[in-house]
Amino acid sequence: APSLEELSNKLSSLGLKDPLPKFEGSNPSTNPVDIYRCYIADQLAPITGVDAKVIYPGLEWTSSFEKGDLVLAVPRLRLKGKPQDLAAEFAAKFPENPYTEKVTVQGTFLQFFFKAGLLSKIVIPQVLELEKKYGPAPTGTGKRIIVEFSSPNIAKPFHAGHLRSTIIGGFLANLYEAFGWDVIRMNYLGDWGKQFGLLAVGYQRFGDEEKLKNDPIHHLYQVYVQINKVIEEENAELVAKQEEAKKTGELLKVDPNQKGPTDNEARAFFARMEAGDQEALGLWKKFRDLSIEKYKDTYARLNITYDVYSGESMVAKESMEKAAVMMKEKGVSEESEGAVIVDFTKFGKEFKKLGKAVVMKKDGTTLYLTRDIGAAVERYEKYKFDKMIYVVASQQDLHLAQLFKIMKELGYEWADRMQHINFGMVLGMSTRKGTVVFLDDILQEAKDTMHEVMKKNEVKYAQVEDPEYVADTVGRAGVMIQDMSGKRINNYKFEMDRMTSFEGDTGPYLQYAHARLCSIARKANIPREELEKANLEHLTEPQATKLLRALAQYPDVLVNTMKTLEPTTIVTYLFKMTHLLSSSYEVLLVVNEKDREVATARMALYEAARIVLNNGMRMLGLTPVERM
Ligand code: ARG
After folding, report:
1. Which of 342, 375, 380, 549 has a CA positioned 20 to 30 A from the CA of residue 146?
2. Looking at the predicted structure, is the pLDDT value of residue 489 above 70?
3. Are residue 155 and residue 95 in the same domain, yes or no?
4. pLDDT tens-digit map of 227-246
5. Domain CATH number, residue 391
6. Ligand 1 and 601: CB distance under 6 A
7. Predicted local distance difference test score (pLDDT) of residue 99
8. Which chain positions lie within coiled-coil regions (predicted)?
9. Which domain holds residue 383?
10. Sheet with 308-311, side-by-side order of all strands
């Protein structure tokens, strides 16, 4: 990014006298709107008698252009007098200037509209120069965040909750990284527990080395389903025996807690794992390693690479034991019927709803919650994070609230740095073949469906160079945009046909918008140096101005996204911007524009739009396509 000095020089070369003061949180060299904020705050200070530093943060962006580009709520200035009257007075006193139109008053708000002429000269060069860096400001430099996301369970389906966690978590990791944070992407696998004893026993009976190597995820799941069937059959047999015993009066001879032989075998196997038996652990490790390898490929299709594959199995016994001692000493935990529990109701009314949670079973074994306590401590010791996010479905709201409260009660000062990013359910997620879904299957089906949609337009399809790649990338965008369109907490219906459609606000629509801009650039074929020197005075049409105002907003949209942590904040913006683009094409011609200078100015505008769209899409985790 240019230095403040370079920027000041540039502004004066545009005929502007500009001190460009540096306000707290102001990033004029990456955010064009901040240039306007600096100017307006500076002008308003003598008019209102309020320090420019106080005015600056009050200059807020708006979500609709009718309200202006920036607004100031006069009551924020805490001045004596009627806000309406003050607003009218300030608006009247605001000087005529190259930055903004005459100030308008709406109730107690001052509305500032950017003047078209200067805007293009500020925004377009800034976007072209910063290119991939246009948007975020490096406000997180020196800070570290752990984003824990996806976290599927080995040998169990990758369900909708994991899909959403993967998409939302991948996006949040990108967002923090763009803002300069040191991001640790962490996958916390469900890779421990009694079910692994069961899986091992199942594998010994039904497993196939070859199948395991080729397709560990599906194969392990098959084995898991098969062995569970055996367990069910054995249980049914036991129940029948008990019924029989009841009838014959021989009840005493049958132990009601009796388990079937397979269940006992599974328990024994898991006990060996817990005791550190090398042979037992060897098999388990093989399952884990092969699954991770496979998952890595799938995550790569979503542009996600993890820094750490941790998991429930990796939490050290010592960490949990240490935590157990602390909990006891601090009176956080107590004994109850041989088990150790935390009774949250004792922490006051606010925590009543957290109820009670077991942290150690009667037989001394640990639970999901116990492992999370140990894991949090280990993560802090290892990474000294400034923030840690758990991207987990809202079904686990209670679990995470309990975890956070325990950490707080244990007195860890970093307990407040943990945050649960939750989300609603996906309804009706299934493939055509059945209801059990793995990530790979979802992506494959999105690709196939997309491919069919593309084939319907024969002429166009014939021109696509690599239809497999395009179908894959665009189909994936469909899945992801559908997921990120609403607020995270909302449920949504999984609709393959809808998400792969070009109609409406879909992933394919965004991809199409990007490919169209690329296509215009190819056809126009104007060298970059010419775009950089374009005479932007030619951008006079209202469509151009609206588009420019939208492009200027992108950095503010990102700042806002850091507050909401909602992908929809960006998705909504990108659709608004691409709609403006659609309505520009028939007015702002490039290829069919005879005046080369005019065509060049418009191309510079389109190129800036392409950069913003590309940046936004990549932030969301999509791969923008250049042709489709
Ligand atoms: N594996 C868990 C599940 O599938 C999600 C893990 C969430 N993260 C955590 N630290 N508890 O339900």
Report:
1. 342
2. yes
3. no
4. 999 999 999 998 888 888 88
5. 3.40.50.620
6. no
7. 94
8. 224-251
9. 144-313+371-426
10. 308-311, 182-189, 144-148, 387-391, 418-421
Q: Is the pLDDT of residue 430 over 70?
A: no
Is 188 near ligand 1, meaning CB less than 6 Å away? yes
Same domain, 74 and 159: no
Residue 341 is encoded by which pair of tokens?
A: 């529990």
Are 194 and 316 within 8 A, CB to CB?
A: no
Other Cβ atoms closer than 10 A to 427: 11
| Whether residue 372 has its Cβ less than 6 Å from ligand 1 | yes
User: Same domain, yes or no, for 94 and 152?
Assistant: no
The pTM for the full model equals 0.94
Percentages helix, strand, coil for the chain (3-state, rounded to 5) are 60, 10, 30
In a domain, 15, yes or no: yes
**392 C-alpha to center of ligand 1: Å?**
7
Cβ(140) – ligand 1 distance below 6 Å: no
Q: Which of 97-101, 246-250, 463-467 has the lowest mean pLDDT?
A: 246-250
How far apart CA 419 and CA 161 sit, in angstroms, is 18
What ipTM does this complex have? 0.99
pLDDT of residue 496: 92
Residue 124 lies in a domain: no
Q: Measured between alpha carbons, how far is 266 from 252 in angstroms, rounded to an integer?
A: 26
Q: Could you tell me the distance, in angstroms and rounded to a whole number, from the CA of residue 419 to the centre of ligand 1?
A: 14
Is the distance from CB of 48 to CB of 77 less than 8 angstroms?
A: yes
Overall domain count for the chain: 3
Determine, yes or no, domain membership for 324. Answer: no
Q: Which atom of ligand 1 is nearest to the CA of 372?
A: 10
Domain CATH code at residue 488: 1.10.730.10
Please indicate, yes or no, if residue 462 is contained in any of the structural domains: no
514 is catalytic: no
